[in-house]
């Protein structure tokens, strides 16, 4: 059901993005689009112009390549092998994602933690066999989520505490969308957009010279939006507990874990969206802001405002947006601007 809703909302977003931007009659402006399923989500990759067809094909191939390296659940992946053996010589891609993940962990004071795999497994998010663990088992698993036990020197990664395991699920799609932007640029695509399960990244302007319109999902109502952001050359990435969860005894448990408790983060937010040039950073920070909640996110932004902007949707159904995007984000909801 969640997946169906997601497909529907992505379709709506894509329709919204394309409305008014296809100029019929000009071959150079026609979109080349590929839809496919990877990294556990539906993806749409779109490039305009004469190199668009080759670019979207290369982008799709690149997604499969990165998925095969980074998926901690796949026995053939580099991350699986690192988690199993405690040491591995990584490809440049895996090393680069792990490096960004460790950097974002430090930047966010551990709110983004790439070592959450033992706790994710306990809750059943790695297998789909969901279960509410005992307090005791969560306490034990938390001892294995210390990022300080992961070292990375050049491409050589080592896990220095047995049982500690890496999970790059909170950053991999953002890294991937940034890599697709590189493919677009290499292919001289001046106008392109990717939507990796609601994680959007754009290169250039729309073919008609205007900004892209990126709709931010409203989880309260299928197919509707919190608002629309006008943007270009940016990643727009949202995290929210509504994206993946299960119900047990009337409670809902979602997939974004507060590293300080080992339980799904409940800090007053329904979703957190980050807008940044770098997709990996936007992805990691959207997860981190969701964990931090409103006040911590605001303070964090004040100390790092040159690197990103944000849109938070609170449990009180209010929008909080940072100053840098206040003029480009249009919403019907009540919006507080942070400066
Ligand atoms: P996202 O949808 O980008 O917010 O990422 C959620 C995914 O990141 C989860 O499915 C886990 O794989 C992983 N994850 C969960 N909690 C955290 C956390 N606190 N820090 C980093 N990654 C996390
Ligand atoms: Mg994320």
Describe what you observe in this structure.
The protein is α+β, with helices and mostly antiparallel strands and 339 residues long. The chain is built from nine helices and 17 strands. The chain has helices at 2-18, 52-70, 78-85, 92-107, 117-123, 135-142, 172-186, 279-292, 294-304; strands at residues 31-38, 41-48, 87-89, 150-153, 156-159, 192-196, 199-203, 212-217, 225-231, 235-240, 245-248, 251-254, 269-276, 309-314, 319-322, 329-330, 335-338. The strands form four sheets. It has a nine-stranded mixed sheet with strand order 1-2-6-7-10-13-14-15-17, sandwiched between helices. Strands 3-5-4 form a three-stranded antiparallel sheet, with helices on one face. Strands 8-9-16 form a three-stranded antiparallel sheet. Helix 2 (52-70) packs antiparallel against helix 7 (172-186) and helix 7 packs antiparallel against helix 8. The two termini are 39 Å apart. The model is unreliable at 1-27 (pLDDT under 50). Adenosine monophosphate is lined by residues 112-114, 116, 120, 125, 167, 169-170, 239, 243, 255-257, 259, 283, 286-287, 291.
């Amino acid at each position: 059901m969640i997946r169906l809703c997601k497909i529907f909302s992505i379709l709506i977003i894509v329709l919204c993005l394309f409305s008014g931007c296809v100029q019929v009659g000009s071959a150079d402006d026609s979109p080349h689009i590929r839809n496919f399923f990877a990294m556990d989500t539906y993806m749409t990759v779109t490039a305009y112009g004469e190199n668009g067809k080759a670019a979207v094909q290369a982008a799709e191939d690149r997604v499969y390549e990165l998925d095969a390296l980074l998926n901690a659940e796949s026995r053939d992946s580099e991350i699986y092998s690192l988690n199993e053996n405690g040491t591995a010589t990584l490809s440049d891609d895996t090393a680069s994602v792990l490096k960004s993940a460790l950097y974002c962990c430090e930047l966010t004071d551990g709110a983004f933690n790439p070592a959450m795999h033992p706790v994710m497994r306990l809750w059943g998010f790695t297998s789909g066999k969901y279960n509410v663990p005992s307090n005791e088992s969560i306490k034990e698993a938390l001892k294995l989520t210390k990022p300080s036990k992961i070292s990375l020197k050049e491409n050589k990664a080592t896990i220095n505490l047995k049982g500690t395991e890496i999970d790059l699920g909170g950053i991999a799609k953002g890294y991937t969308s940034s890599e697709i932007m590189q493919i677009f640029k290499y292919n001289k695509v001046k106008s392109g957009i990717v939507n990796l399960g609601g994680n959007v990244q754009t290169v250039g302007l729309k073919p008609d010279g205007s900004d892209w319109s990126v709709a931010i999902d409203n989880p309260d109502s299928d197919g509707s939006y919190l608002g629309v952001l006008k943007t270009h050359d940016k990643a727009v990435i949202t995290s929210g507990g509504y994206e993946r969860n299960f119900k047990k005894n009337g409670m809902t448990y979602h997939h974004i874990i507060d590293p300080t408790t080992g339980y799904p983060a409940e800090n007053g937010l329904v979703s957190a969206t980050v807008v940044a040039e770098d997709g990996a950073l936007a992805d990691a920070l959207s997860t981190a802001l969701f964990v931090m909640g409103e006040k911590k996110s605001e303070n964090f932004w004040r100390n790092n405002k040159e690197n990103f902007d944000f849109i938070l949707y609170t449990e009180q159904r209010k929008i909080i947006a940072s100053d840098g995007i206040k003029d480009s984000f249009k919403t019907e909801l009540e919006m507080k601007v942070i400066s």
